[in-house]
């Protein structure tokens, strides 16, 4: 499977990649986007199976990316890894069709719990 990791922090993208590997998902094809606009474009060009997105990013937020993808009829599996977590954010994510919501800091065990059903 191909996984798109969207976060404006290069360090955080690297942490997500490392945690995916620690959780046993390192054999998947991992691609990265540095902001929301790039993430939206890469979903269309790279055709990932899963998108792991930050919530706050320049040009387009993660929730804007998700909403625009769904509005365009794209049903890629999409979720958030974010440092902010409010009930409103979780409700908005679920309402937009997010499959998961992981709060930073996270662990390999949390990734395994969330991604095992999705990535197999």
UniProtKB/TrEMBL annotation:
Record domain Response regulatory: where: 2-119
InterPro entries: CheY-like_superfamily, Sig_transdc_resp-reg_receiver, ST_Response_Regulator
Keyword Cell inner membrane in record: no
Positions bearing 4-aspartylphosphate: 54
Keywords linked to the UniProt accession: Phosphoprotein
Recorded superkingdom: Bacteria
Pfam families: Response_reg (PF00072)
PANTHER family documented for this protein: TWO-COMPONENT RESPONSE REGULATOR, TWO-COMPONENT RESPONSE REGULATOR ARR22
The protein's name in its UniProt record: Putative response regulator receiver domain protein CheY
Organism annotation: Actinoplanes missouriensis (strain ATCC 14538 / DSM 43046 / CBS 188.64 / JCM 3121 / NBRC 102363 / NCIMB 12654 / NRRL B-3342 / UNCC 431)
């Amino acid at each position: 499977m191909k996984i798109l990791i969207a976060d404006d922090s290069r360090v955080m993208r690297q942490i997500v990649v490392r945690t995916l590997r620690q959780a046993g998902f390192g054999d998947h094809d991992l691609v990265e986007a540095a902001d929301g606009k790039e993430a939206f474009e890469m979903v269309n060009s790279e055709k990932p199976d899963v998108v792991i997105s930050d919530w706050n990013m320049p040009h387009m937020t993660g929730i804007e990316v998700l909403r625009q993808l769904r509005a365009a009829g794209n049903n890629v599996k999409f979720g958030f890894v974010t440092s902010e977590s409010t009930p409103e954010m979780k409700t908005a994510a679920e309402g937009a069709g997010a499959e998961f919501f992981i709060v930073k800091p996270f662990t390999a065990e949390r990734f395994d719990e969330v991604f095992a059903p999705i990535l197999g």
